[in-house]
Amino acid sequence: AQSVTQLGSHVSVSEGALVLLRCNYSSSVPPYLFWYVQYPNQGLQLLLKYTSAATLVKGINGFEAEFKKSETSFHLTKPSAHMSDAAEYFCAVSGSGTYKYIFGTGTRLKVLA
Amino acid sequence: NAGVTQTPKFQVLKTGQSMTLQCAQDMNHNSMYWYRQDPGMGLRLIYYSASEGTTDKGEVPNGYNVSRLNKREFSLRLESAAPSQTSVYFCASLLGEMNTEAFFGQGTRLTVV
Hints:
- The complex is a heterodimer of chains A (113) and B (113).
- Chain A has 113 residues and is mainly β.
- Helix content of chain A is 0%, strand content 60%.
- In chain A, strands 2, 4, 5, 9, 10 and 11 form a 6-stranded mixed beta sheet that branches. In chain A, strands 1-3-8-7-6 form a 5-stranded antiparallel beta sheet, with no helix packed on it.
- The N and C termini of chain A lie far apart (41 Å).
- In chain B, β5 and β6 form a beta hairpin.
- Chains A and B meet through β4, β5, β9 and β10 of A and β4, β5 and β9 of B.
């Protein structure tokens, strides 16, 4: 069975500070991992994805994530937060041989001026 | 390209009424998904269809039925709506390879009174 756990339903950072959003996964097959962002009253958009090619993945808007198999983690980071980063972020997992695409509970990021 | 289109965008139902949420994609994707989004619970998978002619239960299928009418369309039916089904419903599609991006509709906000 596949699942993802996002620690922290709400995270606040100051503008210009480091953003760190946590995601741990569980998967019975080699996982594919994703981060999505949702702005108010919109659907989800892909930020980045891990598909086994490289453990450090760079995405849009300056975000990146590192796949750590030993820690079963795929945390999302951004060196310097911008006001426009305020949104809800979702980690997701799928895997070869399964068509299930499972999301975490989300982390709402607030950026303080 | 419209991407993934959901109708309606908003709906209010009385307890016990039935309705069908429509979803259509024009990207020639094989796999389609229905999720519900509730505060603090993220996106939970209701049903999915790996390909035309197949459907499978997700995490929270009770009270719902689906139909994969053709490759483009995947509908979600509530036979007898309950207040617990008040939620925002999202349809998504992806090409079929599980390491690819899921594309989302704009959502249907359903209230059951």
